[in-house]
Design brief:
Elements (H helix, E strand, L loop, with lengths): L14 E6 L5 E9 L3 E5 L9 E8 L2 E13 L3 E6 L4 H12 L3
Antiparallel strand pairs: 1-2, 1-4, 2-3, 3-6, 4-5, 5-6
């Protein structure tokens, strides 16, 4: 399979809450990796592809709320989320978290 990611990703485990923008449905889960462009969320019940979501991260006592949309689903395993229109401050937090992963 060809690598299509254009940002460095890190194996970052963090608690997340995924909120479907249209319905307000909430899902508690965790990430297994994070980059400036998106993340993978481990969940048995992934949200459908193209669904607009907000992903609320909690990591090392910090919270970060990021807009995005689901780009792929692995049924029973999880989903890939691509972030949309992040601010420089949000990029700074992601960069710091990714750079601190050992």
């Amino acid at each position: 399979m060809q690598e299509r990611r254009n940002a460095t990703r890190a194996a970052l485990i963090a608690a997340v809450e995924v909120i479907e923008v249209a319905t307000g449905t909430r899902l508690s889960a965790r990430t297994s990796d994070l980059s400036r462009t998106g993340c993978y969320i481990d969940t048995l019940n992934p949200t459908p592809v193209k669904t607009a979501v907000r992903v609320r991260f909690t990591h090392q006592g910090e919270e970060l709320d990021l807009p995005g949309h689901v780009v792929y689903v692995s049924p029973g395993l999880g989903m890939g989320v691509r972030f949309d229109d992040l601010t420089p401050a949000q990029f700074n937090v992601i960069d710091r978290w990714v750079s601190n992963v050992k």
